[in-house]
Write a structure and sequence with these properties.
The structure is a single chain. The chain has helices at about 10-15, 235-250; strands at about 5, 20-25, 35-40, 70, 75-85, 95-100, 105-115, 125-135, 140-145, 155-160, 160-175, 175, 180-185, 185, 200-210, 215-235, 255-260, 270-275, 285, 290-295. It has about 300 residues and is mostly beta strands. The strands form five sheets. Strands 2, 14, 15, 16, 17, 18, 19 and 20 form an eight-stranded antiparallel β-sheet that branches. A hairpin with a 2-residue loop joins β19 (about 285) and β20 (about 290-295). The chain is globular and about 55 Å long.
Length: about 300
């Protein structure tokens, strides 16, 4: 069948570069349904699965950064692969790898697509669409809004039947990945007007006090991002895209990605839940709408990874 691409609109690229906020409401692998996944060192779907049976490949696309998938055996080259030849993945132009344990011995991480499920250099229409050079001193998220296999401009991919994350290390490693997310951006024209709440974080704790008044605090969660995004939308194309976003997240039932500064800090991507449903999107005038999106971060919290 073969994949196809279109160029991401230049205006959206410019807005992302200028750090206008960006959302990703869809998860093309998670949304796809009957998806096959596996780990192995061959980079070939025809080769047996080497996933740890307690952490299968499906955990890597479950919208749960805190639930990881990993290999059963250690090696210097590992491929995490997903495929669906009946309903191909796409369109997507953003990729995130989160909750990983690549560490200082990982030299290169690549996202590869192909038509036949081979990623070993012999695959049909095999292309690398993103790469991240190690070493990785922390579990900081790997995020690309600049996917491409040719040329100098970001591309949006459709009709992708097979996709893989290739991890190359200097010593044998059992890589772990919490979430591999592919989706299509919603690029706002302006930053949200929440200047007084731009860095709000939340903690959850319980206090215990003895008869002698000694107090102990049990921290259950800390540094959870929680804030409200307010945007005025005055472009019919963006209005249609945001309406699709509301459908993708099922008016708040599904989580999504939020990138505060996609140009300068794409790795600071939050996985968020909408806390208000229905999400308001009233019409203020002709081609003029306003939305208020109350967001609360899903674990693992970004600040713990930076």
């Amino acid at each position: 069948m073969g994949f196809s691409t279109v160029i991401v609109p230049a205006a959206d690229v410019a807005r992302a570069t200028a750090d206008k906020n960006l959302l990703v409401g869809n998860h093309r692998i998670f949304d796809n349904g009957a998806v096959a996944g596996r780990w192995n060192t061959a980079g070939d779907f025809a080769v047996a699965d080497d996933s740890d049976p307690l952490t299968p490949a499906k955990f890597g696309v479950a919208k749960r950064i805190d639930i990881v998938t990993k290999r059963l055996t250690a090696d210097t080259v590992s491929f995490l692969m997903y495929r669906n030849s009946i309903t191909p993945f796409g369109p997507f132009d953003v990729a995130m790898i989160a909750g990983h344990t690549f560490g200082s011995t990982t030299t290169l991480v690549e996202i590869i697509i192909s038509d036949d499920g081979k990623f070993d250099g012999t695959g049909l229409n095999q292309e690398t669409i993103a790469s991240f050079a190690g070493p990785f001193g922390t579990s900081k998220r790997l995020v690309s809004i600049d996917l491409k296999h040719t040329g100098a401009v970001p591309l949006r991919y459709s009709g992708v039947e097979n996709v893989a994350v290739k991890v190359t290390t200097s010593i044998g490693l059992k890589p772990e990945i919490g979430e591999f997310w592919l989706g299509q951006r919603i690029q706002f024209h302006h930053k949200t007007d929440r200047p007084d709440r731009s860095h709000e974080r939340r903690s959850v704790f319980r206090d215990f006090q003895t008869d002698s008044q000694a107090k102990f605090r049990q921290v259950l969660a800390d540094t959870q991002a929680a804030f409200t995004g307010n945007w005025v939308i005055h472009d019919p194309t963006l209005e249609a895209e945001y309406n699709q976003f509301l459908l993708d997240v099922k008016q708040g039932a599904e989580s999504f990605l939020y990138i505060e500064n996609p140009g300068t800090a794409p790795a600071e991507t939050h996985q968020m839940w909408a806390m208000n449903s229905p999400i308001p999107f009233p019409e203020l005038g002709v081609e003029l709408n306003r939305t208020s999106l109350e967001m609360e971060e899903a674990p693992i919290f970004l600040d713990l990874e930076l």
